[in-house]
Amino acid sequence: MTARTLLGAGLVVLVVLAALVGPGMSPYGPDSPDFVATLAAPSAQHWFGTDDLGRDVLARILSGARVSLFVGVGSVAAALLVGLPIGLVAGYAGGWTDAILMRCMDVLLAFPGILLALGITAALGTTLVVTVAAIALVNLPILARIARGQALALRQRDFVTAERALGFGPAAIMGRVILPNALSPILVQASVLLASSVITESYLSFLGLGVQPPTPSWGNMLHDAVGFLDQAVWLACFPGLAIFATVLGFNLLGDALRDRLNPLD
User: Can you tell me the distance from the alpha carbon of 50 to that of 45, in angstroms, rounded to the nearest whole number?
Assistant: First the structure.
């Protein structure tokens, strides 16, 4: 394993562990105020300092990791669940089916991703489920087009022709041979979308259209830190570093996965 792969895997494991076990190990609750220790600098008692309400920043970052991973994994999983069948059917069937399905995907691609997510959350509300659905809709056409491209490239291959000769129908062929052979680029893209989904959730929360207080999110922690940059810069630094480490880890892991699955590229 290369140093890049080890670094990416290490960062991802660190974030996952922080989300799974971190909040339970912290002596402070993410929403427990201490008005005696407001805006306290990082110390042995509060490693990452406290915010304007005296809440422990480290405890809030650990709790926010759960939100970021839930949104990232949930939105990509939902996009895969819907986008893969759309792309495979469009690429395998061709003709009018392909044209209609891909024009629907083009409509979604016509909107900048963050603006589409902003519009959905502004219209439907700022719950966690709506945030996941909005980001999934942004990811959907990307995965659908990759699946379509793979289906187009594979549908005339000899092993697909052999499946047809054996009497298998389109659904069986797509599930048995096309999907397994198309997974490599789809998995690589999914890992990249995990990173972009974390960033999009942070955008939405920073603008007040994502996860709402008092639930801690790295994005709304950055929003709260804006008014205190001259007094407590750590309020912005630590959530920003958490976002940076998570995105870097998933991107490095995606690069490693691409190199592993396509060694000749």
Answer: 10
Please list, in sequence order, all residues whose beta carbon lies within 8 angstroms of the beta carbon of residue 96, skipping any fewer than 6 positions away. none
**CATH code assigned at 201:** 1.10.3720.10
Structure tokens at 206: 């920073």
Q: What are phi and psi of 30, to 5 degrees?
A: -65, -20
At 107, list the tokens.
């409509």
Q: How far apart are the first and last CA of the chain?
A: 17
- Domain contains 7: yes
Domain holding 231, by residue range, is 3-16+56-261
CA angle, corner 27, sides to 23 and 30, nearest 5?
A: 50
From 183, 187, 180, 181, select the one nearest 254 (Cα to Cα). Answer: 187
Q: Region 12-30: what's the mean pLDDT?
A: 87
The one-letter amino acid at 238 = F
How far lies 203's CA from each of 12, 30, 54, 75, 249, in Å? 21, 21, 25, 15, 19
Global pTM reads 0.89
Total number of domains in the chain: 1
pLDDT digits (tens, 9 = 90+) for 149-197: 999 988 888 888 888 888 888 888 888 889 888 888 898 899 899 999 9
Note the maximum CA span of the chain.
77
Query: What does the DSSP 8-state code read for residue 177?
Result: I
- On whether residue 42 sits in a domain, the answer given is no
